[in-house]
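DM from R.C. (forwarded with permission)

"hey, sorry to bug you on a friday — could you get me a structure for this? deadline for the figure draft is monday and I only need the backbone to look sensible"
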Amino acid sequence: MIAKIIETLIVGMIGGLIARKIKLPAPFMTGSMLAVAFFSILSNEMYMPNNLKTFAQIISGAYIGQQVTKNDFLNFPKLAKSILFLMTLFTVNMFVIGFLIHTFFSIDLITALLSCMPGGIMDVSLISIDMGAQSEIVATMQLVRLVGMLLILPYWIKLLLERFQKKDDALKSLEVKKMVKQLPVGTSDFIVNDSLILIIASIGGLIGLSLHIPAGALMFSLIFSSVLKILKNTTQLNTNIRYIAQIFAGTIIGSTFTQESLKQMSHLIIPALLLLGSYLVINVVFGYIVSKRGVLDLKSALFASSPAGATDISLIAGELGGDMPKIAGIQICRTLYTIIVLPNIVRWLT
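My reply, with the result:
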């Protein structure tokens, strides 16, 4: 088992390095995911235990937390209306696309609705079993949604930014560079800085994990890291640490691909494309409206409204830029809403 995990990580790392060489967006995430998925389908020998995603969540939370300022905490209540607007869009989309899939593709209503939930593969799949839906269809649709969004998203956002966004990110880039160069914890030893951040974030992540709440490890590692940032003025983690987390997240997703899941996807191509298309529409609508209101810049609004994993989106956003604290906050709210609220709405209506 350990040999398989090491083998999978090696394949993921090679995939990430190749992706960086050919200049794919978010290379260590997308490259490791594609490489592991390819070998998993061919050999069925790729394996990564899903609980290792806790590691990626803690690293992601630690990284995001180091970008949080006191102003971010004060401004977060201003996001409430935008979060409510996004959750409304996701809810309406779930019912509209769910009913279309139910009507035209002979899939029972509960299965169709759960397939359109913007949540995690594991969480939604477990909910589908509990609610008596066809869990294999739900899991396949959720997998297509996650992988499809992660593959499309970097190119999609780049396209939209080229069309709509004014070139106003220069100042932000300079501020980030300045932040990275500052001395951590009153010392020039970056090993001490990174170790302190990882220890504190890990304590928070393990607390969040023990509470058994969705994205708990990400949420609490982010909180602990941001408190440390404000109290001790620590500086950002080494970039290579974030790349390692991206490889872990990418290999976990890639290892879920099998020949059986590939066969199932062939029967669900049209429903999956319909679902992905609807999420891209939501992405544009939310991004345009929220950026016009000045709540978020366009890039951050697009990342925040992308229904992939909270950890995965945060890692990609860290690679491509964006207001990570706000993105992570909205993504965590989406995860909680999907797991706590949406299943009860579906159960009540069906």
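R.C.: lifesaver. The radius of gyration is 20 Å.
me: no worries. The chain is about 75% helix and 0% strand.
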